[in-house]
Amino acid sequence: MGRRFIGQPRKKQIAHGIARYVREHPLDVLHQCAADTLMFIQEIIKKGKGSNVIIGEPHVSDLQIQQMNLVLTHYDALNHNTELYLLDELHDLFAPHIEEAYRHPSDALQSDMVKGLEDLAEIAKGCDTEDDFINKLKSTFPEIDFDEIFSEDNEEETKDVDPKDEDPTPDLFGPGGFSYACSHPMMEDIRKLSYQGQAAVIKAFHKALTHSVNTTGLRMISRFKHSYREITFSRLEDSLDQIHYAINDLDNAIYEIDMLDPMSFFAIERQLTPIIRKHLPKK
After folding, report:
1. Each residue of 19-50: b (16+ CB within 10 Å) or e?
2. Does the pTM exceed 0.70?
3. What contacts 183, CB < 8 A, 6 or more positions away?
4. Mind listing the pLDDT tens digit for each residue in 37-47?
């Protein structure tokens, strides 16, 4: 946490010194946190004491929140993810200050925010209208409900809100988080699609395998690729059986990715979700 000690203190003295620093200066501690660390802490605080955040990353030793020993971690070998827990004492210390940490961010967090604005500027390139920009945002960040953000009702509700009180960070967990937390509900929706919609998902998944997935050790990918090559995309009506087989192989492949490489699954989820939503039958 950037603390300095005089002389050669023992481990116990260092531990007590850092503990005292955290208790007396919780906002200073939060100001040293990167954006992802603040996001994890904020989400746990929102959920309440005793709750956790689950991330699709088995090895968290390189995360700042773990290096600062702000959380207890539990690795779930069955689901290949890690649970982050915040001690009740830290919950009580950070809860009154987490919003302030966002309102007056540290230099590091400001850099993260500037990077976010640069990303938005890049997305805006080539957009002729506001609708083009919003549609591009939706396809780039499917986990964020932009319809709610840009709705007229929302504008009325927030018209008199002090800009200083606005939360600059999207909620990436729970309601309003990822559209599909695992492969099973995703496949349920894919199987509801018409054969044209399924073909679009198959094509997007094949493309994602090239850019988003480390296929080492994944056995079901080759079967899917074989089924993919059997489809004539220019004449889909002549490839209905092949689409059916490819969907079955996609099911097995995406389940394997979900189990063995959750971060790759979420990368694919971001790419497939807009396509699935576009083709889902209207209720």
Report:
1. eeebeeebeebbbbbbbebbbbbbbbbeeeee
2. no
3. 251, 254, 255, 257, 258, 265
4. 888 888 889 88
80: phi > 0 → left, psi -120 to 50 → alpha, else beta; which? left
Residue 60 buriedness (CB in 10 A; 0-12 / 13-18 / 19+): middle
Neighbouring C-beta atoms of residue 261, cutoff 10 Å: 22
Distance CA 246, CA 223 (A): 8
Candidate from 65-69, 191-195, 236-240 with smallest mean pLDDT:
65-69
CA gap 51, 90 in Å, rounded: 13
Q: How far apart are CA 193 and CA 145, in angstroms?
A: 22
pLDDT of residue 159: 41
* Cα–Cα distance measured from residue 98 to residue 45, given in angstroms and rounded to the nearest whole number: 9
d(CA 206, CA 268): 10
Count of all residues that appear for the chain in the document: 283
Helix (H, G, I), strand (E, B) or coil at 204: helix
